[in-house]
Amino acid sequence: MMGIGFVIFNIAAISSHINQETMQEFFSPWLSMEFISSILYLGILASLVTSLLSNSILSKIKATQMSVYANLSTVVTIVAGALILNEKITTYDIIGSVLIILGVIGTNYFWGKKDHTIKMNLHYNKKEHS
Q: E strands within 3-130?
């Protein structure tokens, strides 16, 4: 999915730069160390590491529980962006993070209160299938 987005958005950007005759501006961000560090952060830490951790956790908990915890990646990204890239944390970031954390806690708390398994009553009669 990420690869498809990469290709489509780069084709759109290159087409736009060709039409406006500003192709040199397409490559100019690569001269900035801040841009390169941001790309590495997003590509390695925020994407690769979280994907590897998600796959690893699937061996320990149910996929439905893991999908709830996957929402925490947004909170981790906000905090890491502030710590590593000195990004400003806004009120919206805090409110959104609190809502995400409350959602994860609430889902896991109430998940244990109900039986979410599908129960099937299958009877196999050997006489009918002999």
A: none
